[in-house]
Automatic annotation (TrEMBL):
One of its GO terms (biological process) is hydrogen sulfide biosynthetic process. Its EC number is 2.7.1.25. Gene3D superfamilies: P-loop containing nucleotide triphosphate hydrolases. This is Adenylyl-sulfate kinase. Residues 68-218 form the APS kinase domain.
Amino acid sequence: MCQQAAPRDVSAQAAAAPAAVAPPHAVGTNNAVAGPHLSTTDVGNSTNIRWHDSMVARTDKEMLLGQRGCVLWFTGLSGSGKSTVACTLEHLLHERGHFTSLLDGDNIRHGLNKDLGFSAEDRAENIRRIGEVARLFADAGAITMTSFISPYRADREMVRERCNAGEFLEVFMNIPLEVCEQRDPKGLYKKARAGLIKNFTGIDDPYEAPLEPEIVVDCFDADGQQRSPRDMAEQILEVLDGMGYLRDPRMPTLTAYGALQRKHSDGILDFAQL
Ligand SMILES: Nc1ncnc2c1ncn2[C@@H]1O[C@H](COP(=O)(O)OP(=O)(O)O)[C@@H](O)[C@H]1O
Ligand SMILES: [Mg+2]
C-alpha cells in the first residue's frame, strides 16, 4: 500500500511553486514600505501574514499513503447514524490500510468548539472551524470524515467552496425524522418535545437537506427493512473506491476532479459521461 516517494529537490520545488498554490482568500498585498521584503497580506483580523508553501507536496504525501485526501461530510438529523456509520467506515478503511481521521460533533464540542452553543451563528462558526480542520487533514492526505448535523445548506456550501474541486463529498444520511426520534439514543428528542431543549434540529429548528449530495445513504433497503450501519458504510466505501480515492493518485482513475456526476436515487455516482 505505502510507497516511498522519491526524494525531492525542495529548493527547486519552492522556486517552481506556482502562484496558484496560495489560498484563494489571500488576496491583496501590503507593500507600503519599500525594501527587499516578502509581501504580506491581511486575512480577516490577521494582519501582515504570508502563506508559507508546503515543504512536501500534497501529492507526494498521497503517493506515500496510496490514497487521495478528501473530506466526507456526513450530514443528517440527530440520531440518523452519522457517528455510527462514519465510525464503521473508518474501521473498514483502517482494516484496508488507509489513513483516516474522523471529526465527530460531540467530541469536537468537548474541546476546540466548547465555547460555541447552538444558535444559528454558533452553528455556523462550529461548521466553519470543522471545515478548516477537515481541509488540513485532507491536505495531509487523510480520508477525512466529519459527523455533524450541519443543518444549514449555506454553512455546508461554505465548506464546499473552501475545498478544492472534488475534495468535498457530501454524505446525506437520508433517515426520516420518525426513525431518528424513535431511536433517540440520548433522549434528546424527548427533551425537545417537552420543551426542555430549545433550537433542536427537526423539532423547533430546521434541517435543510442537501440538494446535490455526492452520496445519499437511504434508511431502508429494497425490502423496506432498515439497513445496517455496515451496509451503509460499505456503500460509501464502494463509491470512494470507484472514484479513485483509495488508490495512488498516479494510477488512472475512473473520474476526474471537478467532473463529478451526481445521481441521487441510489447514491451511486455515474461515470458514464466521464
Ligand atoms: N443504520 C442503522 N440501523 C440501526 N440503528 C442505527 C443505524 N445507524 C445508527 N443507528 C443507531 O441509532 C443511534 C444514533 O446513531 P448516531 O450515530 O449517534 O447518530 P448521529 O451521530 O447522527 O446523531 C445509535 O444508537 C445507533 O446505534
Ligand atoms: Mg453523532
